[in-house]
Every structure is written in structure tokens, then in C-alpha cells.
Design a protein that fits this description.
Layout lengths: L6 E4 L11 E5 L3 E4 L7 H10 L9 E3 L5 H4 L2 H6 L3 E5 H9 L1 H8 L10 E3 L2 E5 L2 E7 L8 E5 L4 E5 L2 E2 L2 E2 L9 H12 L5 E4 L5 E2 L1 H16 L10
Parallel strand pairs: 3-4, 4-5, 5-6, 10-13
Antiparallel strand pairs: 1-2, 2-3, 7-8, 8-9, 9-10, 11-12, 13-14
The protein binds zinc ion (ZN).
The site of zinc ion has 6 residues, from loops.
Length: 228
């Protein structure tokens, strides 16, 4: 199984400006994962229009974690009529993070009027079910979404192809990230959709990527479940 037909992948491709990858699940409830920066939303919108829908068509917008390059656009999505959500700890982190945010973006941090909190467990959105995994380490309140039926893992900034999320930003923690990695590598993922960089297809490739990351970045934290 490769990328399902109702998954739209919008990788961020500019090298001059940082933003995240965005993903749309076109189910009976249309879900947007990580809208990215507010001022860059028009890029996403232009590409969505080519696929036959617009930001107004999004019913629910979710953020994997509380960094501006992933969650800032939620506010605009809310204005356009979507329900918006993040983890409760992510929202709490944002209020503590206000000064750094304003320093990083040069803009006032918006309020995030979330409609519900994302938490560990099953998140049923119309015809689609996402398994939410709490995966701190890169940022407080970070989550991954595992879309079980097609085996697609949206990993935010926890893991990328051949790399892991930074732990040197406020609230980062290498030990927690290692534990989060163990948690998501036990899933039977066939497609890895990270928050930045390329998407990885194929169960073997996804598994290999996890083992490579564990070995390269977390070798000092020996795990009893190592394959060899
Ligand atoms: Zn991040």
C-alpha cells in the first residue's frame, strides 16, 4: 500500500524560507494537518486549488506541535470556518513561549481559540480514524497522528527521513524524544509523512529509517528491542 488516493501531500519546497509540510485527508470530514505559517498560507491554498479545493473546504485543522512554522495558520483556518485543535500541553507551552515567539517571528503571537484538545488515543473524524500518540521531546505537547487503515504516520518534527527533530529549542528534551521514537517505530507504518523534507513510502523503507535514526542519534540509549 502506498499513498492513499484521498491523501494530499503538500511538501514545503522553498529553500529561502522555512515552513512545514502540510497534509490534507479528503474524507467525509476534510482534515488539514499542520497549516504552517500564517503569512505563507497562500502557497498552500494555491496548491490546494489545483487539487480542487480551498482552505474554506477544511473542516478540521490540527497542529502536530506548537511551533509557528506548523501551527500559526490555525488562526486563519478558524476564521475560515474550520475547527482547530492542538494538544493541551501545546497550548500551555504557547503562553509560556510568547516572548520567544515574538522574537522568532517578529510578530505578535496570536491567540489560538482551539475548539478541542488533541489527546492520546483514538480521534474519529467522520469516516477516518487517527490514532494520536503523545510524542514529546522536540516540543511540549507534540503529537504524531497514525492513520491506521492505510498505515500513514504523520510524524511532525519527531522524525524525518534520516533525521530527528531538534531538542535545543525551548521545551526540547533528548530523552523524551528517544522514548517518543520507540513509541512510533512500533507502528506498522507504510508511509512516513514528516513535518519537513521528503515523504517516505514502503513499510521496509520506513522501518529502516527508524532503525537508522535510532542507531545514529540514540545509540547511547541502548534499547533491548534492537533488531540485531
Ligand atoms: Zn518544530
Amino acid at each position: 500500500m502506498s499513498v492513499p488516493k484521498n491523501l494530499y501531500i503538500y511538501p514545503w519546497e522553498s529553500y529561502t524560507e522555512n515552513n512545514c509540510n502540510s497534509f490534507v485527508i479528503d474524507g467525509s470530514v476534510r482534515i488539514l494537518i499542520d497549516p504552517g505559517h500564517a503569512h505563507l498560507l497562500h502557497h498552500l491554498e494555491a496548491r490546494m486549488v489545483r487539487d480542487g479545493f480551498s482552505l474554506e473546504d477544511i473542516h478540521v485543522a490540527l497542529a502536530t506541535h506548537p511551533h509557528p512554522d506548523h501551527c500559526e495558520g490555525l488562526v486563519k483556518l478558524k476564521e475560515l470556518g474550520a475547527l482547530i485543535a492542538m494538544h493541551e500541553e501545546a497550548l500551555a507551552f504557547l503562553s509560556r513561549f510568547r516572548a520567544q515567539w515574538e522574537q522568532m517571528t517578529g510578530q505578535r503571537m496570536p491567540d489560538f481559540p482551539v475548539d478541542f484538545f488533541i489527546k492520546e488515543g483514538r480521534l474519529e473524524l467522520g469516516s477516518e480514524v487517527l490514532q494520536v500518540l503523545e510524542t514529546p521531546g522536540h516540543a511540549p505537547g507534540s503529537v504524531c497522528f497514525y492513520w491506521q487503515e492505510p498505515g500513514v504516520l504523520f510524524s511532525g518534527d519527531v522524525v524525518f527521513v534520516q533525521s530527528v527533530g531538534r531538542v535545543d529549542l525551548p521545551g526540547g528534551h533528548a530523552g523524551l524524544l528517544a522514548r517518543s521514537l520507540e513509541k512510533i517505530m512500533s507502528l506498522d507504518s507504510q508511509v512516513l509523512c514528516p513535518g519537513h523534507g521528503p515523504v517516505l513510502e514502503g513499510r521496509g523503507a520506513v522501518k529502516e529509517n527508524f532503525y537508522l535514526i535510532r542507531q545514529y542519534f540514540f545509540a547511547h540509549q541502548a534499547s533491548p528491542s534492537s533488531p540485531q
